[in-house]
Amino acid sequence: MRIAMIGTRGVPARYGGFETAIEEIGSRLVAAGHEVRVYCRGAESPQGEYKGMRLVHLPAVRHKALETLSHTTLSVAHLLFRRTDVALVFNAANAPLLPLIKLARIPVATHVDGLEWKRAKWNGTGRRYYLAAERLAVRWSRQIIADAVAIQHYYRDRYGAPSVMIPYGAPIQDDCDAGLLAREGYQVGGFHLVVARFEPENHVDLIVEGYTRSSAKLPLVVVGSAPYAEEYSRRISALAEKDERVRLVGGVWDQDLLDALYAGCASYLHGHSVGGTNPSLLRAMGAGAPVVAFDVVFNHEVLGDSGVFFAGPDDLAAAVEEAEASPSHARERGDSGRERARTHYTWDDVAARYERLCHDLEAGA
Fold it and tell me: What segments bear the compositional bias annotation Basic and acidic residues (predicted)?
C-alpha cells in the first residue's frame, strides 16, 4: 500500500508522542513492504528519506493557533497530486481538511489524540474550534483512532461514534547507563524526575509545589520547557527558586541521557491529565521507573496496579517521601510497570494493528 502520514512535525522524532509514533509505526510499515510518505514541518537540511520512509518537507506558520493547520493544508494540497491508497491524519484539529482527502477518494483515518479542548492554552475560541473539530473528525473520517479505552468511551458517549483503539508503544530498558548519568552529575536512584512540557494540564507546578512541601532528601530534576506558556513557566520558576533541591534543567535532547534519567530515577512524577495513553508515561514504565501519577482515568488505565496516584500537593509530598523511605518497594513497582509495558504496549503490535487498519481502509471495510 501507499500510505501517507499527515499532521505532525514529522521525523526524525525530536518533539512529542505523535512524532515518535510516526517513526516507530512508519519504519515498521516500510519493513512490511509498504510505501510510507511522511509530511514534515520545514527543516534547515531536509532529508528525502528516513528509515525507508519518504519525507516531504513543507513550511508552517509559527503560531500556536495556526501552526498545525497551516502545515496540514499544504500537506493535503501535495497529497492530492500523489497516488495514495490510505491517509492517516494525526490530530483532530486537522478535521476541516478531511473533505479534500475524501474528494480525492482516499480513505482516511484520524487519530484524534486527547481532549485538546481542555488544555489551558486555548481560550474560548480555541476550545470551541477543537470541539467543532472533534465533530467534523467523526463525520468525515472513515475511521477514528483512539489511543486509550477512555478516549474510545468519550467519543462513544459524546458523539455515538465507534473507534479503533491503538495505543502507543513503550521502549523497554532493562538496564541503566550509570556511567552516562555519572558524567552528567547524577547517581542511579539519586533523584526524582519530571519530564513534561510546561502546560497547566501537565501539573508541573503542582508537582514542584508538592515536592517542596516534602521532607525529601533527593533532588527533583525537572526536564521540560514551554514554547507558548511564559506565564506558567514563570510560576514554576518562582516555586523552584524557593527550594534549592529543585533543579530546572530545560529540554534534554540527548535521547541516551533521557533514557538514563528515566531508568535511574528514584521516582517518576507524571502530571499529565487530558491526553490518552501518554508516551512519556510509557517511556518511564518501559525503563522500570517507579511512577507517581496524577489521578485521572487515563493514567489508571495505563499503569494498572503498578502506579501510585496523587490529586494534590500533599498527596505528592507523601508519595515522594514513601519512595525514599522504601526504595525496594518503589523498585518493585517499577519492575511491575516495565512488565506491563512489555506485555501491553509493544511497537511491533501497535504497527501490526495500524497495518490491519490500513488494509481495512483500502478494502472499504
Answer: 329-341
